[in-house]
Amino acid sequence: MSLGHGRHYLAIPGPSVMPDRVLQAMHQAAPNIYEGALHEMVDGLFPDLNRVAKSSEKMAIYIANGHGTWEAALTNTLSRGDRILALATGRFVVFWSNMAERLGLDVDLVDFGKSASVDLNQVEEKLRADKDRNYKAILVTQTDTASSVRNDIASLSECIHSTGHPALLMVDCMASLACDPFEMDEWKVDLMVAGSQKGLMTPPGLGFMYFNQRVIEAREKADLVTPYWDLLPRINPEVFYEYFYGTAPTHHLFGLREALNMLLLEEGLEQVWARHAKLSQAVWAAFEAWGKGSSIRLNIRDPKQRSHSVTAASMDAPYATELRRWTEHKAGVTLGIGLGMADPSDPTYHGFFRVAHMGHVNAHMTLGMLAVIDAGLKALKIPHGEGATEAASQIISLA
């Protein structure tokens, strides 16, 4: 028997749960794209998006997913043959660096593994050894969506500046913006990319690139610039359509406006960050309880390096895949696959999974998801420790 025929809960790390209000804001007739209310609304989006990133810099909106913003970051700042330093703490900087290589860039990829954050000592050694200042950019994620590691971007920026190296610091915040604290101005980040479908609670389709004057200056020398990804028309449009290099993504913009109202005007950004921190602690408490005397393990052992938006975990194969299928088909909760932790042809692939706690989530959604996992472990007779839901509830009760 399935008990999954009520409202389904998508507990994967993007697209995240879309609030009804966001979907309802999108459910309207197409607007006049040439003048009037749409133009006024878009003018108000930019300062609010900057508030989310704690930025006073420029930004561009692309009709794209995260991969599109990666390409925008590379093509607006670099030229064929330029050397870049890529700091991988999971899968997504690897993907980003693969794109860079296909664009003709020379990539120095430093892989810190799938369960640890960036080692600042290694970064400092790399930068000090680069006497000729050949590195033009440094790529990193704040949260790697696959491994769930959270990198300390403020400390990384301090490390870079302490060496006097001029490389541009480029940060992927796809899985962390509006979930974890991010301070673009204070941390001296040169360029940041993000998307609409995670912490910003809007369907996939909008990509955001934030950048400072150093990036604009780099754009003047970059030979990879292409018409669509060019940032200049988007920040200095002579006509409205140049914001998007074509027809505006009208209904995504309606949804985004409502999401920003919820985040900034109603809850407040600091409270949004605090909510994500508390809910993630509840998730970790449950996993730590399940892990007692069993193979269940959090991928990131140090709580200071754990994301507040997604948690990667493992257990003996094939239990993770069996659990995911049970929660989805028996209880209406979809968990994330163990992306990039093992090749799908490898039997160990079926021992990894992820749970998301990002965006439009609250206590009852998180506790319900954990209770469903607990029920699945029992139904499938997967070895696990007891007391997980109680441990999570205790964290919530102290909020």
3D structure, described in words:
There is one protein chain. Helix 6 links the parallel strand 5 (135-141) and strand 6. It is globular, with a radius of gyration of 21 Å. The protein contains 13 helices and twelve strands. The strands form two sheets. Strands 2-8-7-6-5-3-4 form a seven-stranded mixed β-sheet, with helices on both faces. A five-stranded mixed β-sheet has the order 1-11-12-10-9. The two termini are 36 Å apart. The chain has 399 residues and is an alpha/beta fold. Helix 2 crosses helix 9, helix 5 runs parallel beside helix 6 and helix 12 (363-379) packs antiparallel against helix 13 (388-397).
Key features of this structure:
Aspartate Aminotransferase, domain 2, 399 residues, single chain, 7-stranded mixed sheet, 12 strands
Uncertain spans, ≥5 residues at pLDDT below 50? none
Corresponding CATH architecture of the largest domain = 3-Layer(aba) Sandwich
Question: H/E series, N to C?
Answer: EHHEHEHEHEHEEEHHHHEEHEEHH
Number of domains: 2
Q: What is the beta-strand fraction?
A: 15-25%
Outline, from the CA principal axes?
Answer: globular
Largest sheet: 7 strands, mixed
Major sheet: order of its strands? Answer: 2-8-7-6-5-3-4
Individual helix count: 13
Return the CATH topology of the largest domain: Aspartate Aminotransferase, domain 2
